[in-house]
Protein: Calcium and integrin-binding protein 1
Amino acid sequence: MGNKQTVFTHEQLEAYQDCTFFTRKEIMRLFYRYQDLAPQLVPLDYTSCPDVKVPYELIGSMPELKDNPFRQRIAQVFSEDGDGHMTLDNFLDMFSVMSEMAPRDLKAYYAFKIYDFNNDDYICAWDLEQTVTKLTRGELSTEEVSLICEKVLDEADGDHDGRLSLEDFQNMILRAPDFLR
Ligand SMILES: [Ca+2]
Ligand SMILES: [Ca+2]
Structure:
């Protein structure tokens, strides 16, 4: 076939295509970007599934993330141990969900996880304050942030338990897609 690619086995590439929204070419391109972040760390042969993680400091400096106020949360949510350090699989998952090909429901699911700062499967008033502060890039006063949070909770807390479940959140972003960026 004249295919010199030996980074992955055929099966590995098939699996990555199944688990992401990417073509083989895009997967290879992302692999090389991953490898380029830490060339001494990431081998060019993945056929034996090396146990490698690229540190958050490098991931967070990528153009897609460096200006995103949620970059650390994003990396934490997609990393295996929640510390932001990423295996290649974590890395591909993250870019897959961030891609335009990912359906809105999937993006919403991960946005919920990103906004759930204390990882308890609910967005409480405190989580919401962190989220709104970051979404508005610190340009609002504490009072303004609290007002927005109150309003959001008021409108989106469908079962009135004072916090947003994933379901509350999904209903909310149908009306306010700004929360999905
Ligand atoms: Ca929470
Ligand atoms: Ca609720």
In short: The mean pLDDT is 93.
